[in-house]
Design a protein that fits this description.
Layout: H1 2-78
Length: about 80
């Protein structure tokens, strides 16, 4: 009788493994879909960053030029 009990437990465990495998495959599909959505959002954000950098570049260049000029003028007084 122990053999039959062990066999029943084995069958139950195999059914559990099959169910968990099916659930894992479903979750993997969900993760893949979410990853695609996240990559799309990341790409959109990167495009927005590039647009902002392009728009801000002239302003940042002027600020840097003015900062360099001010630092050069201030260094005359420190010496």
């Amino acid at each position: 009788m122990k053999f039959f009990d062990d066999f029943k437990q084995l069958i139950a465990q195999l059914k559990t493994i099959a169910a968990l495998t099916k659930k894992l495959q479903s979750q993997q599909k969900n993760v893949s879909e979410q990853l695609i959505k996240a990559q799309t959002i990341r790409d959109d954000i990167q495009i927005d960053i590039e647009k902002m950098n392009f728009k801000n570049k002239p302003h940042l260049d002027r600020i840097q030029k003015t900062t360099d000029h001010l630092n050069a003028e201030l260094s005359k007084f420190k010496a």
